């Protein structure tokens, strides 16, 4: 049996200007938030590369960086995303001449707020630590996608997980519907 990937995603500690710290960890929930905002994991990776490849604060860096750090601080990091949306009514005419309208929601901004004291992430981060923040983001993101035991962070506990046969491509069968699936009379008639 080959060894499955270890269960890791320990994250990195991020210091704040008020002297507190939080654990930056890209859990599945954090990755899902980022996927929604960036159009999939490829968009997330592109944003990481744009920030990580920057030696200075030129171009659009701060907003995407706050978003990436904020998503990694949700859950156990104690931060909660707050979405600002714009709703637009789209009016259309169908081929048969009927006029319809529908509301389209677009997320225009995401602010991350610490649940314990309602302070915004942007107010807690110190821009002088830009390089350290980029390094923490990069390492935490790498830990979310381990490539086996050799990629586990030093000192991490590596746990092999045995997969049940249902995950190894065994076939399954279905049975005929039970009598309880039959139509029933609505109550009160």
What do these coordinates show?
The chain is built from 5 helices and 4 strands. It has 189 residues and is an alpha+beta fold. The strands form 2 sheets. A two-stranded antiparallel sheet has the order 1-2. β1 and β2 form a beta hairpin. α1 crosses α2 and α1 packs antiparallel against α3.
Name the shape in a single word. Answer: extended
How is the quaternary structure best described?
single chain
Distance between the termini: 60 Å
Question: Main sheet?
Answer: 2 strands, antiparallel
Report the average pLDDT across residues.
76
Cα-atom radius of gyration? 23 Å
Global structural class: alpha+beta
Strand content: 15-25%
**Runs with pLDDT <50, length 5+?**
1-9, 163-174
Instruction: Indicate the percent of residues in helices.
Output: 25-40%
Main sheet strand line-up: 1-2
The string of secondary-structure elements, in order, is EEHHHEEHH
Number of helices in the DSSP assignment = 5
List keywords for this structure.
189 residues, two-stranded antiparallel sheet, 5 helices, 4 strands, extended, disordered N terminus
Lay out the secondary structure.
Layout: E1 12-15, E2 21-24, H1 28-38, H2 41-52, H3 62-72, E3 79-93, E4 99-114, H4 121-124, H5 130-144
Antiparallel strand pairs: 1-2, 3-4
């Amino acid at each position: 049996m080959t060894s499955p990937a270890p269960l890791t995603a320990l994250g990195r500690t991020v210091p704040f200007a008020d002297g507190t710290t939080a654990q930056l960890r890209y859990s599945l929930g954090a990755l899902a938030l980022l996927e929604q905002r960036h159009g999939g994991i490829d968009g997330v990776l592109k944003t990481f590369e744009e920030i990580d490849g920057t030696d200075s604060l030129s171009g659009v860096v701060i907003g995407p960086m706050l978003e990436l750090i904020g998503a990694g601080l949700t859950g156990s990091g104690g931060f909660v995303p707050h979405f600002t949306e714009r709703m637009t009514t789209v009016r259309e005419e169908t081929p048969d001449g009927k006029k319809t309208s529908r509301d389209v929601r677009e997320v225009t901004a995401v602010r991350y707020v610490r649940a314990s004291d309602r302070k915004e992430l942007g107010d807690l981060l110190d821009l002088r630590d830009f390089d350290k923040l980029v390094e923490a983001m990069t390492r935490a993101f790498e830990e979310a996608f381990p490539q086996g035991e050799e990629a586990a962070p030093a000192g991490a506990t590596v746990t092999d997980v045995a997969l049940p046969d249902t995950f190894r491509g065994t076939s399954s069968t279905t049975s005929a519907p039970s009598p309880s699936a039959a139509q029933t009379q609505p109550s009160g008639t």
